[in-house]
Amino acid sequence: MTTNNDKTAGSGSFAEDFRRRVADNRTSRWVRFAIVSLIFFLWVAWLGNWWVALFWFLLFDIYITGYIPLTWWKKSKSAAVRAVMSWVDAIVYALILVYFVFTFIGQNYQIPSSSLEKSLLVGDYLWVNKMAYGPRVPMTPVHFPLVQNTFPIINTKSYLETPQWTYHRLKGLGQVERGDIVVFNFPAGDTVATKVTNPDYYSLVRAYGRENILRNPQTFGEVVYRPVDRRENYVKRALGLPGEWLKIVDGVIHINGEPVEQPENVQFNYYFQLRQGAMTEAKWDELGIAADDRHSVNITPDDISGLQILGFTVNPDGTVPPVYISPLTPAMVKTLESDPAVTKVMKVPSFSPEPLFPEAVSQGWTPADYGEIWIPRKGATLKMGPRAWDIYGRVIRVYEGNSDAEFRDGKLYIGGEPQDSYTFKMDYYFMMGDNRDNSLDSRFWGLVPEDHIVGRPERVLISFDKDRSLFNGGIRWDRIFMNANPDKPKYE
């Protein structure tokens, strides 16, 4: 980070010294300062906070006057000091640059799960465009830019909890559209048990009880709260937008009562049976089914009559040819149905061992037959009754910042004052994975507030197949720089 700090103060008044320092700069340095100043003021205008413009005087000193001795080490008589500090200077400059790029432009993101298979694959590294919807001004501004919330190995927080800034999003290139693949902070990740990453903390509470988790840190780890922008990053497809009614009927999403087009590579779990023999690795690869999704069904004697009723083949000797279960796209289903070696293809009935959102009103719902639910819109007012509180109570208390909100005696109370209705402060979204039967999404943990939105994946930077060695197909060369959402439906 080169500066003009090697200037020495001359004799005379401050004004004379200031004029001398200004005059001593070459034209090239003034040009660099002018370019940096232009970029800085454009950034300030984008922020919409002109108090930040006061930092321009710091830039003026760094480039022109050099009163702050940022490069004192250049005058050191020790070669070791000069060598070490030159590296420190370069690293600090690089980290500041990375911080601004990752905060306001975009950053890389790795796909960890198969919830958007086949659009995005496990092992894809994406470039996420934060300007697509407008970058958020950091809510936890003091953080290390290369990690989300925890330093690896040493397992300590990578951010300071103070200061905390209120949510503010800069003007972006557009709005979230239906069908967009979106990266966002996991809303239910506000509280975490640090030794357990899946399921989330609230699922752990249902399974083990809050007191049991707190009493057993050796098993669950420390229970900590994370600010919005330090919560884990998730990636799903936006299918329900603010102000809309969403319902799922037999796996088909309905918006405001009308069915909408499914993504081309939407997947559901299917059973399929071979006449004889077993699936080979070559056959799995030909179908395009990932290694983690290749499952055989364990059949017991008690299952045989049920299989016959469903149309599966049972041999005269009572043996059953192999039956498999995997997530399949419509194209895969057609391929299997046209294969003479396959005797039966059947969609797996939808069910969930986990409660669906909102738990208090979702009895009888399934992941494939879900809702109907209204998605809040900023400025919209909703009359509050018991059912509305059951659905939106967490939204009002946690996401909208009304921690003292409660529902009693048939009324909503905020700050101790009774309210007949509630006006929402933010837009909300309903996010789902394309791998519908293998995606923990809004059907399970609820709505995504606008202040959790990070950005939109634009390109696959590189892709690694974890099931292959690096030199045996481990790099998916055909995915490098490809569109990160190639099959976005063209909604009306």
From TrEMBL:
Record EC number: 3.4.21.89
* Sorted UniProt keywords: Hydrolase, Membrane, Protease, Transmembrane, Transmembrane helix
Which organism's genome codes for this protein?
Duncaniella muris
Q: What is this protein called?
A: Signal peptidase I
Q: Name one GO cellular component term.
A: membrane
Q: Which residues form the active site?
A: S115, K236
The protein's matches in SUPFAM superfamilies, at most eight in alphabetical order, are given as: LexA/Signal peptidase (SSF51306)
* CDD domains for this protein: S26_SPase_I (cd06530)
